[in-house]
Each structure stands twice: as C-alpha cells, then as structure tokens.
Amino acid sequence: MTERFDGGVVSAWATCVREDNPGHMTLDGTNTWVLRSPDAGPGARSVVIDPGELDEPHLRRVLEAAAPVGVVLLTHRHHDHADGAPRFAELAAAPVRAVDPALCLEADPLRDGEVVEVDGVRLDVLATPGHTTDSASFLLREDSALLSGDTVLGRGTTVVAYPDGALGPYLDSLAALRAAVDSVGGPVRLYPGHGPVLPDAGAVLAAYAAHREERLAQVRAAVDGGAVTADEVVRTVYADVDKALWPAATLSVEAQLAYLRDH
Ligand SMILES: [Zn+2]
Q: Rounded to the nearest whole angstrom, what is the distance from the C-alpha of residue 153 to the centroid of ligand 1?
C-alpha cells in the first residue's frame, strides 16, 4: 500500500492543502495548491489552484493558508476541483480564471502560452486538453515545478473522460508538457491534482505516454479479436485492474475506440 499524501509545505513556493474527499477518482483527496513567492514582502498575494469541492471547512483551511489571494486558477471543470471556486472567490475576494469561460468570475479565460503573474509568482499557462477539453497545466519555473491537475496524477494513471476528453489531444498534451518540462533544464517536480508530489515530471510524462501506447495496442488487439463494445474491451484489456475502476476505464476505452476509428 502506498503512503497517503496529506499535503503541507512542499517547497519555498508551494503549499498543498489536501481536501478530505478520498475516493477512486480523487485518490487521497483533491490537492488545493497555494503558491506564494518567497522573495515577495509581507502582504504578498498568493495564487490558489483548484479550491476543490464546495466544502466549507476545506475552503476555510485554504483561505487560512492563502490569504491574501491574488487569483484563483482552475485546472479543469470537474466538481472535485471547481465546485468550491465561487464560494472561495467570495471568501477571498479574488477573481477566478479557467480555460472554460463559464467557470471564470470577474476575469478573462486562460489562454495557452500566457504568463499569469501575481506578486512574484509567474506561471506559464499550458492548455492540455485530453482528460477534459478544458484542462490546463501550469509551469512554475522558479520552483522547477509542474502543476498538472488531473492530466497527470501522483499515482496510477488518469482517465480520458470521453466524450469531453479525447485521446488524440491527450497524447499531444503529454508531448507539450514534456517539451515544457525540458525547457526548464534540470529536474522538474510534479504537483498533481491528486496524490503525492513526484520528483521527476519528465519521467512520469514518459511513463504516461508509454502506458497510453501500450493500452492502445491492447485495445486494438481486443477489437481485432472481436470485441465490439467498450464493456467487452474493458473486460479483456482491464482484467488486471480493480473492478471498481472499470466505469472510469470504460470512459478511457470509449476515447481509445474513437481514436482508433480516426487513425
Ligand atoms: Zn480530480
């Protein structure tokens, strides 16, 4: 059994407030990230990434760690990351930004390639569709850290949540993240949306890409062997995976079948 990740201070720049909402999809719970420049003076504002669910005690704990807050960013629209954002924005009197304009409050949507800057915290915004169409990741160069939301997790692999998510964009996003990580020079740590901090984001990205290729080959073989529906493919390809994860696996298989139809 792997050790549970409880969050806390992970670097001079970053603190994780881990929500108490463990589950199959959330692992140990949702990681809410609080980023603040160690070089900025007292009163410097923070950046909060993914307030989590509408969970008042959690949001209060985040506020305690984060106030004053310059901006709230969302990695994607799923409830375990975004549902608490309006309430947190109210508590912190801060705007909310996301790729999806519908999630933004008092601010513009995030654009791929822009740099979000708040009191010495500079984040490269990377649009990384795949897990969902609106997924984004953030590179904090000064801390050599990649904040990956659910695009890359701290443990296991993620779901391509078909039909919102799609495999072609997901593979492109993994490649874009590898290029971004390489551009930092030296090891880059992974600060994921769920699960522990990992020391080498580049290695994790390579493993994710290899895993996707492997699963795709298995799905192709299952289809060649006569499997037609996603359920039939899951029974063959995900036989080694906990059955509780099969509903999620079915979404990923739907995404892979759609990808194979187009490629
Ligand atoms: Zn999540």
A: 9
Q: How far does the centroid of ligand 1 lie from the alpha carbon of residue 39, in Å?
A: 31
Condensed to tens digits (0 to 9), the pLDDT of residues 164-182 reads 999 999 999 999 999 999 9
From CA 98, how far away is CA 73, in angstroms rounded? Answer: 6
Q: CA dihedral in degrees (90, 30, 203, 179; nearest 10)?
A: -20
Q: Is the dihedral of CA 206, 19, 166, 2 positive or negative?
A: positive
Per-residue pLDDT for 234 more than 50?
A: yes
**Residue 176 amino acid letter:** A
Is residue 205 within 8 A of residue 188, CB to CB? The reply is no
DSSP 231: H
pLDDT over 80 at 1, yes or no: no
Average pLDDT over residues 211-229: 94
The winner for highest mean pLDDT among 118-122, 161-165, 252-256 is: 118-122
Domain architecture of the chain: domains with CATH: 7-200 (3.60.15.10)
Distance (Å) from CA 66 to ligand 1 centroid: 21
Which residue matches tokens 């993620």? 158
Interior angle at CA 136, CA 130 and CA 148, nearest 5:
90
Q: Tell me, what amino acid is at 211?
A: H
The answer to whether 46 and 70 are in contact (CB under 8 A) is yes
Q: How far is the CA of 74 from the centre of ligand 1 (A)?
A: 11
pLDDT at position 12: 97
Report which secondary-structure segment, H or E, holds 97.
strand 96-97
